[in-house]
Design goal:
The chain is an alpha+beta fold and about 350 residues long. The protein folds into 2 domains: about 110 residues, Rieske Iron-sulfur Protein, CATH 2.102.10; about 220 residues, Naphthalene 1,2-dioxygenase Alpha Subunit, Chain A, domain 1 (Alpha-Beta Complex), CATH 3.90.380. The strands form 4 sheets. It has a 7-stranded antiparallel β-sheet. Strand 6 and strand 7 form a beta hairpin. Helix 1 runs antiparallel to helix 6.
Amino acid sequence: MFLRNYWYVAAADTEIGRTPLRRVILGEPVVLFRTEAGVAVAFEDRCPHRHLPLSMGKLTGDVLQCAYHGLQFGSDGHCVKIPGQDHIPKSAQVRTIPIVERYHWIWIWMGDPALADPAAITDYHWLDDPEWGAKSSYLHVEANWQLVVDNLLDLTHLAYVHGSTIGNVALAEHATVNVERSPNNVVVTRWIIDQEAPPTFKKVGGFTGNVDRWQIIHFTPPAFLRLDVGATPTGTGAPEGKRVGGIGMRNLNAITPETETTSHYFWGQAHNFDVKNAETTNKIFEQIRTAFLEDVDVFSAQQRNLDLVPNPSQLDINADAGVIQARRILTRLHENERGGGALAAVL
């Protein structure tokens, strides 16, 4: 199930250059490159002649040449040369795809180009805000994109998957949880009061006693999850909004479906303390990266089971409240995009 009329992240800005990059987005091949002026361009990665990926070709100026029979395409997707003939048919062109460069990411619109409004791009300003220290990265995931979304909406797993970094048992046993749903948004708020800080928080925050810890998850369709996380020494007023004397971070996630069973996982980590210290930024980033690689192992194992038994029975528990609400929103939006208003009314 793919929602098409939405912006997705296709690549980091540093991935796109003068060497064509192939990436499969929503089951479709895309080639990305920069013009000589540095402008990012995206085409369907398929020569209309005999279907070879254009990403296997080469750039000369702003012209991309197919590596099979030498057809050349300008940055607007139109063929400008066919070797051995003067006439260029109108059908000799490739589909160009809207893209926008923002927050150090390349955003792509795979749906109706007439609906591609850059104002609809989800806010990830923390990644390039000078008031925050930040670093981002990319993971390829051998799993369906919704498994990644589910994981980020139910953070009880931190206690069992990430015990060496960002998790401890208090997350599962001592959290107060509230789930709020609006038509196209889910917010899951978790407070863990007067409990031991997890290993990563001790390393980067210097905590020696118990803390009051928060995890506020904002889900926006199709697969954008922005987490406001942090902790302060217990009893200093964090639940009332006094977040001083501790640490505050944003964990920023953008999941882009590749196929039904594989995903592109773009993520970043930002912090609002010691923001000019690259060592602090790298220390936090590496801790989170370690945790996310553990998550990738989980996603992949889930997908292998689902490949064997595609529609198994499934048990839901209290911790799934946010997951269930997000899935309902996605189902409604998918049905709306396909014109199925009846189911949308039920959900």
